[in-house]
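Quick question, first post here. What does this chain look like in 3D?
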Amino acid sequence: MRNVGLQRIAMATAATVALAAPWSGREACAQHGGEHGGEHGAPPGGPPHFPGGPPHGPVPSHPVTVGPPRGGTVVPAPPPRQAPPARPPVPPGERPHVDRDARWVGHEGRHDEDERYRVGHPWPHGHFGGAIGKGHLYRLRGWDAPRHRFWFGNAYFLVAPDDIGYIDDWSWDSDDVVLYDDPDHPGWYLAYNTRLGTYAHVEYDGPVP
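> Answer (accepted):
Ran it through. Tokens below.
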């Protein structure tokens, strides 16, 4: 009888170990960032991201060539920009972001025809004098809500009115951003958030006093 009891205990122990093994593997996988992990790991529900910034900016659109006005016709100025109406928060997966193939989602197609990012006088405060592109990270230092601008180091940047809904989860005193030129709209940079993998159109607003 004693031998039978020992056999039953051994069988129960083996079954417990067999059931626990898959969960142990899953825990280890989770601790190392899952199956994909590495540079392209992402917060739950968000896009993949590049800690040092994507390898390149978005591919420029191909503008349609338009001939000069005929007969001295004056081309009217674009209508003044208006603040976008209030809208509910945009889910992280639907915000402009850079995917695993370094494709700038939200900047495809005929982005050069998007009137929201056309400015009459680009670079009113000149170009940002710091380095931009992959590997050049800047730690955010604050957010000026009334003016919709942030700063780092000694530089201010205005966020495009239509992009305000994309930055409500940015941490203004700890996130790092990498800047890229917007190839379709002179006057704008694209600020890529390395923690979230999302980006927004920003305009250099001069030095911090």
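The longest strand covers residues 199-207.
The chain has two domains: 1-35, 45-58+92-209.
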